[in-house]
């Protein structure tokens, strides 16, 4: 089956190194780590290169056979100094990460393209690819917006991140993904949801705390997976604290792992 990782937003109340242990106990062999928050005052775990916390995290990764697949969230706003992310990129490289999730909070498209290109250049020496995420409440709101920025920046390590919830909530569909040059897609994030969107005022809350397990909702996830290459890095991002406030992080992660395995197994049976 397609390998998949645990997105940190699913269990954001646990940071490294304990995140490594939790992921392993839930059955995951790979995770994402939130080194930077996309919102002021948000939860983040800024591991410093060479620090004792970094050493302990890497030791647990080795002991428990868990990899860090990606780091997040690099935010580009109108006043962002791109160079400030060098430390996060160095930390990501030390963790063995290969990808970085990028969010945009700058409405000026020309400046976004320029700075995304500069960010790609900064990340390249660390062996990191940058995956630009689109979401309805940000200036890069739709799939076509993200594609425009990535194509215009023209960097070999610049890609688009497709989050299933954001794709369908922003009016996108499987056909739009299938029509893309596959080389533009850097990674995908899975979750589920009702097909009907909440009011715009509830979109952010749904995305951050009220998602459904893969296969639990109505999104056409199997159709989406069918048009994606099997080697595209796949994460499962299911923050559910509003829907299930009593569930601890270990139980959340375990449910996410079991549901995703079930979804991927059904896809395999559908193919064969």
From TrEMBL:
Pfam families: AP_endonuc_2. Keywords: Isomerase. Residues 21-231 form the Xylose isomerase-like TIM barrel domain. One of its GO terms (molecular function) is isomerase activity. Transmembrane segments: none annotated. The keyword Isomerase applies. The keyword Acetylation does not apply. PANTHER family: BLL3656 PROTEIN, HYDROXYPYRUVATE ISOMERASE. This is Sugar phosphate isomerase/epimerase. It comes from Caballeronia arationis.
């Amino acid at each position: 089956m397609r390998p998949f990782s645990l997105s940190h937003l699913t269990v954001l109340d646990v940071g490294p190194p304990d995140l490594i242990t939790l992921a392993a106990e839930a059955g995951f062999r790979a995770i994402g780590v939130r080194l930077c928050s996309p919102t002021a005052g948000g939860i983040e775990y800024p591991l410093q290169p060479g620090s004792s916390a970094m050493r302990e995290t890497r030791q647990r990764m080795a002991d428990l056979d868990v990899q860090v697949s990606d780091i997040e969230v690099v935010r580009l706003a109108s006043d962002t100094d791109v160079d400030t992310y060098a430390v996060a990129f160095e930390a990501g490289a030390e963790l063995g990460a290969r990808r970085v999730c990028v969010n945009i909070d700058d409405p000026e498209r020309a400046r976004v393209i320029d700075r995304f290109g500069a960010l790609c250049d900064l990340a390249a020496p660390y062996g990191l690819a940058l995956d630009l995420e689109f979401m309805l409440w940000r200036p890069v709101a739709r799939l076509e917006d993200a594609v425009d920025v990535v194509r215009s920046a023209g960097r070999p390590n610049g890609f688009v991140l497709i989050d299933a919830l954001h794709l369908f909530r922003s009016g996108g569909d499987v056909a739009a993904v299938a029509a893309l040059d596959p080389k533009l897609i850097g990674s995908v994030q899975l979750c589920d949801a009702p097909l009907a969107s909440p009011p715009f005022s509830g979109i952010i809350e749904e995305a951050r705390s009220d998602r459904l397990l893969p296969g639990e909702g109505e999104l056409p996830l199997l159709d989406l997976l069918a048009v994606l290459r099997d080697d595209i890095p796949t994460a499962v991002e299911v923050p559910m604290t509003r829907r299930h406030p009593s569930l601890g992080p270990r139980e959340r992660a375990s449910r996410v792992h079991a549901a995703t395995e079930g979804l991927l197994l059904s896809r395999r049976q559908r193919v064969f």
